[in-house]
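FAQ: What does a multi-protein file look like?

Like this. Sequence, then tokens, then the next protein.
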Amino acid sequence: MTELGQKLPKPVAMPTRPRSAGCAAADCAACEVRSLTFCAGLKPEEMGRLAAIVTRLNLAARQMLFHEGDSAEFVYNVTHGAVKLYKLLPDGRRQITGFLLAGDFLGLAGKDGYSYSAETISPVELCRFPRRKLDQLFVVFPGLEHQLLGLATDELVAAQDQMLLLGRRTAAEKVASFLLRLSERGKVRGQPGNPVQLPMTRGDIADYLGLTIETVSRTLSQMRRDQLIRQRSLTEIELTAVERLADLAQG
């Protein structure tokens, strides 16, 4: 796990032009990842009310959405780009707990604030919702709260998967599992799934898998020699032997 220095500043939202609820609802209806978010399946009236409270953010890479412990005033939908979630250990080391892609949701928190930090990996577009106004909509439209409960359940499943990944597995098993999961997530988003897109750095991958950067690099190099993968670029890996990778991931 990587040691971090000072915290990065949180982003400042750029001013946006005033938009009518009708225009905002039309934007939401045309969203390419709507089917993956908690906005999926909303009725027109619900969509209009939800669109009226949304702020759209465009952030550069390496910008903080929020820090662990900050007051949880907002929740977010990622509509483009990638975000990493992490926690800082008392000694300054970092454990990345997840990577979020277009269609993913973040910001659920308890009374004490956000339980993790969120930082953009690449240029990112997000929809930001004030929690207080969203809670008011839940009273009027119970279906919204049901959608959010489903996302909370998905977060719990992802946390359990992460615990399994960090458990008693070898470096090769961890990296193979990571690549296959990214492939499946790409397919869900209507992408080919192969080659796999890697917007994160090798250091990010290491902090996610509980390995060192050197171990991640050696493992990928061995996979290339074994003709399991082909490195197309720094951010793109082709899976050339998917079944063998799946066998490796299962140990």
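And here is the next protein:
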Amino acid sequence: MTQLFDENGRLNSVTLLQAGPCVVTQLKDDVSDGYTAVQLGFGKAKKLAKPQAGHLKKAKAESRYIAEFRLPFSQAEAGVDQADNPTVGDTITAGIFSIGDKVEVASTSKGKGFAGTIKRHNFSRGPKTHGSHNYRAPGSIGAGYPQHVFKGQKMAGQMGNAKVTVKNLQIVFVDVEKNIIGIKGAVPGPKKGLVRVQGRQE
């Protein structure tokens, strides 16, 4: 994360992400696959297994990561010129984003390990006076009837290391030459983590 000033002189917290170059590894349509999507490859793998190498052979890529982005409609239905459609092997850079665009970001959050209810669910602690020993205990987890703990009860356990999606984030910086975009606010995941950035469908 870093800080950038906008045109009004206000300071914004910004997360910088490397947004490419991504290679189009596969195109799916309603006829052959039953839905419309574009598959992108990112990064370079040290060594590819034979199935992955065969899949990427047509695109002439050695992508380490592959992600698929569903499209709500086909290009023909949207009236898009077929000459503008991406083809397998094309390279997509950060130039597809513009300042002011709203995006949806998904990633795996940082794992915090086993955590108690105070840290995990923001429970309040008990009193520390008058002989109380209920400092950080969770308290009651159910009633006498129906004599079992309900599913979803907030208790101690694994914290973090889960898929987190943040919607309606704004792009405030784009560097096409270095394939870097700046997103206003925080993004889930650790440094050098893999993040999925997708434009919001209006």
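Q: Is there any per-entry metadata?
A: Some entries carry free-text notes. For the entry above: The chain has a mean pLDDT of 89.
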